[in-house]
Amino acid sequence: MINWGVIGACGIADRRTIPEGITKAKNAKLSAVMDIAQDKVQAVAEKYGVKYYTREEELLNDRNIDAVYIATPTNIHCKQVVMAAQRGKHILCEKPMAMSVSECNKMIEACKKNKVKLALGYMMRFHVYHQKAKEIVSSGALGKIVMGRAQLSCWYPPIKGAWRQDIKVGGGGSLIDMGSHCIDLLEMIMGKVKEVSCFTNSLINKYSVEDTALMSVKFESGAVGLVDNHFNIPDLSSKNVLEIYGQKGSILAKGTVGQMSNGAMITYIEKDGKGYDAQQHRMSAHEENIELEPRNIYQSQIEHFCEAIEKNRNPLISGEDGLWNLKIMLAAYKSAKTGKVVKLVRG
Q: Which of 58, 150, 265, 299 has its CA 20 to 30 A from that of 240?
């Protein structure tokens, strides 16, 4: 059983990761929470029946805690991860990993030096439909993959004190907040990105980060991809889709990209191998509704990381993965600023 502490307990941690992940996971136990707002963190602690702290040093010095979940603003991830590593705590850090490549490297090095696990919070990889999509693509059922799309948008009006709306605290807006999840999913299914082109703008909400982002990518395989993210579309109007297209068919998932664990997925795959019918001017595709039992993505994420700690395995989403994702995001922002395609170099 892994004993958890949470740093930054009053946001997404209290809404999702604690109630759906840490407290539900079979191999995890919540031991303590921390946030700088004493009244709020005290309420969170009372809700879950655990102790609370208002300084990260206090929580990290708690010898009963094995692992920490860091859900604070991006600009303090590096400091807190290094502090946690130095105290021997395993770390699940929210995305984006940090504000710069140098910060990411510092975090990775600290964790290696102190022999602790570091994982990033890309919980959408654990969605049963996303894993099924990867399985279908890996099986070759779609043939050669030619294009993928991931969409994640929401309505996020100006809110006083919202760190995701402050460029100095979050590092960007809709692209880095939601697009980082989307590109992580596409790479999970389609392989690594090698080129990026991007447009960003502030069309509706006038804060210091973008509320509109459209990124196109080229994968090492030659396939292309599209990621679209907005802070200015009503929640019910954005269907948050994942689409994968190949020479033999497609996978269309709706409502799977985001914080929910359900959704729907349909495949259209050429089954008989007859190919193009010149008389009918079409191919014969078999349509199938994929119905899977939902499994909570936060619970799956926590259980996986606990198992990685207990069995001394590498976590599915490592610090190196977080670093690579940030490199893609920074390349996208560079493209948006310069109007040019930006090439990525692995390693």
A: 299
Q: Which candidate, 144, 240, 146, places its Cα nearest to that of 185?
A: 240
Axis crossing angle, helix 180-190 with helix 319-338, rounded to the nearest 10: 110
- Cβ-based burial of 51 (10 A; exposed 0-12, middle 13-18, buried ≥19): middle
Tokens of 142: 């779609």
Closest CA to 119 of 331, 300, 290: 300
Would you list the domain boundaries of the chain? 2-123+298-316, 126-296+327-343
* Residue 80 C-alpha from the chain's centroid: 19
Residue 178: count other Cβ atoms within 10 Å of its Cβ: 26
Q: Do domains 2-123+298-316 and 126-296+327-343 have the same CATH topology?
A: no
CA 86: distance to chain centroid? 25
CATH of the domain spanning 126-296+327-343: 3.30.360.10
The CATH architecture of the domain made up of 2-123+298-316 is 3-Layer(aba) Sandwich (3.40)
Q: Any residues with CB less than 8 A from the CB of 37 and at least 6 apart, and which?
A: 10, 54
Q: What is the pLDDT of residues 70-86, one digit of tens each?
A: 999 999 999 999 999 99
pLDDT digits (tens, 9 = 90+) for 286-330: 899 999 999 999 999 999 999 999 999 999 999 999 999 999 999
- The shares of helix, strand and coil residues in the chain, as percent rounded to the nearest 5, are 35, 25, 35
- Are 313 and 300 in contact by the 8 Å Cβ rule? The answer is no
- Angle between the 101-113 and 319-338 helix axes, to the nearest 10 degrees? 170
| Beta carbons of 258 and 201 less than 8 angstroms apart | no
Residue 158, preceding peptide bond in cis (omega within 30° of 0): no
